[in-house]
Design a protein that fits this description.
This protein is α/β, with parallel strands linked by helices and about 300 residues long. The protein contains eight helices and 13 strands. Strand 9, helix 6 and strand 10 form a beta-alpha-beta unit.
Length: about 300
Amino acid sequence: MTSNIPLNSPVFLYGASKKGIEYLPIIQKRYKVIGFLDGNSKKHGTELCGFNISGPHSSQLLNKSSIIITSTFEAEISETLESMGIRNFVSVHALPDIERMYLKEKKKSQQKDISKRAATRSPLLVSVGSEGLANRGWLITEQSFLDITQSDDWSACFSPNSIDAIFAEHVWEHMTTTQAKVATKLCFRYLKYGGRLRLAVPDGYHESDSYIERVKPGGYGNGSDDHKVLYNYQSFSSLLEDVGFKVELLEYYDENRNLHTATISENFGAIRRSVYNYPDNHTDKLNYDYSSLIIDAFKCPN
């Protein structure tokens, strides 16, 4: 594997696929693309984006060229090329400038797509940081293109005062208190008046000591190594109220470790890690294995 490809030198892209197409215009800004390579013989002799597709056996084409691997099968392709005695290749991920430009362009494209889709949604329901917990009818966003602490990301996707509801399950605990305040202010800005922000986080007043050990920053639970804050209903309410939200507590333990629950309409986001939805919870209401601190926060006129 080579560690350096001179700028403007001729290259083949190994991977005649969607990913190769996505990288093509970025790579063309730095190198002279002369064709695609692919291990699938059915593609050989055909074209992609106006470029011929050949097999890696075309050594006469490779003598004066380098190969940039754009396929997801990077390890297998590297092994194949090395077994053929070909060394003038590199993974696209090992080219920092190309990778940065690719991610920047991909982010712009994703933001443009979300903005278009948002313009056609009524009501506009947005899930942030909870892509694995999709609610039907919601726009699902990811941190790669909507970092909720970044004003520029919000403005690229949405207009202020345009969103009817925002949903985030177990996201806020992954931010520092400073980041959480910024994200909360931005949610407030982009919600309509009367809009709702539904948040769920681990509950710092939970009755179970083992639960606390699991979810506290640095705890032994899944993802807890990235937790920054363990909220209780008082500290979490204050965070939201300080920004201007009116708070409604839906599920929480108080300072005496007593559980409080309310009827939660799933129209504004179903919280999986809750008293009634968590699959491992006991049927005895007084002995739940897992619950969350759940709050609905409303943007009300002054």
